[in-house]
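Risk register update: the risk of archive-format incompatibility is retired. Evidence:
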Amino acid sequence: MSLALDAAAQDLLFREAQTAHTFTDEPVTDEQVQAIYDLVKFGPTAFNQSSLRITLVRSQEARERLVRHAMGANGPKTLSAPLTAILSVDLDFHEHLPRLFPALPNVKDMFFAEAAAREAAGTQNATLQAGYFIVGVRAAGLAAGPMTGFDFTGIDKEFFGDGKQKSFLVINIGKPGADAFFPRSPRLGFDEAVTSV
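Archived output:
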């Protein structure tokens, strides 16, 4: 059975898409980022939580503040990318639920009154949205370089001092530069990853 998505789109989004490690200096515009967001915001989350927050790091000063918390080669890569996004979970996402999920007006208090429950659910759904965001970056014809090699506690203190957001991923975004991609690594086969019960 074939997919409904044509082969060129499958290549763009998945088969030929890889994590980029270098970028050209071509800017990523606000219009491009808004187009990406306006597409990926429709990806489903539980109760339409929409707990992902995206902080765009554009200025040199903010970039230098960010790379203080980078591990290894992630610092130089981040300094050279035209745009970097800090992805975080909004720990108060539940405040928006009466508007975002009107089908169940009391969902905010029913499931998310406790901070620990909010953080667990918010993080799970923000992580799901991060996957949508990476695919959206690719759909815009850009490359993404997602990284977890950062001190996220340090990033939170640096950028989100109020404790209302908790970062979990940094993504460099732009047009791929010279030698941007490592050789493609193998993937698990269908029978290794999928089980029927």
